[in-house]
Amino acid sequence: MQAAGTPAVVSSLQHVFGKAGVVRGTKALLGINQAGGFDCPSCAWPDPDGPRAVAEFCENGAKAIASEAMSRTIGRDFFAAHSVAELMAESDAWHDLQGRVAEPMVLREGATHYEPLTWDEAFAIVVDELRELDSPDEALFYTSGRASNEAAFLWQMFVRAFGTNNLPDCSNMCHESSGLALKEAVGVGKGTVTLEDFLEANVILCVGQNPGTNHPRMLSTLEEAVARGARVVAVNPLKEAGLLGFAHPQHLRGILGKATPLASSYLQVKVNGDMALFRGVAKALVTMGAADAGFIREHGSGYEEYRSLLEASPWVEIEDLSGIGRDAIEELALLLAEGEKRLITCWAMGLTQHRNAVATIREIANLHLLLGAIGRPGAGLCPVRGHSNVQGDRTMGIFEKMPEPFLAALEKQAGVPIPRKHGFDTVDSLHAMHEGRAKVFIALGGNFAQATPDSDFTAAGLRKCRLTCHIATKLNRSHLIHGQRALILPCLGRSEADGGRFVTTENSMGVVQSSEGKLTPASEHLLSEPDIVARMAEAVLGDVGSIRWRWLAEDYDRLRAWIEAVVPGFENFNARVRQPGGFYLPNAAKERVWNTPNSKANFSSAPLDSFRTSAGRFLLQTLRSHDQFNTTIYGLDDRYRGISGMRDIVFLNPEDLAALGVKPGGRIDVTSHWTDGERHLKGFRAIPYDMPRGMAAAYFPEANVLVPVGHVAEGSNTPASKSIEVSIHAA
Ligand SMILES: Nc1nc2c(c(=O)[nH]1)N[C@H]1C(S)=C(S)[C@@H](COP(=O)(O)OP(=O)(O)OC[C@H]3O[C@@H](n4cnc5c(=O)[nH]c(N)nc54)[C@H](O)[C@@H]3O)O[C@H]1N2
Ligand SMILES: Nc1nc2c(c(=O)[nH]1)N[C@H]1C(S)=C(S)[C@@H](COP(=O)(O)OP(=O)(O)OC[C@H]3O[C@@H](n4cnc5c(=O)[nH]c(N)nc54)[C@H](O)[C@@H]3O)O[C@H]1N2
Ligand SMILES: [Mo]
Question: Whose CA is nearest to atom 23 of ligand 2?
Answer without folding.
Answer: 631
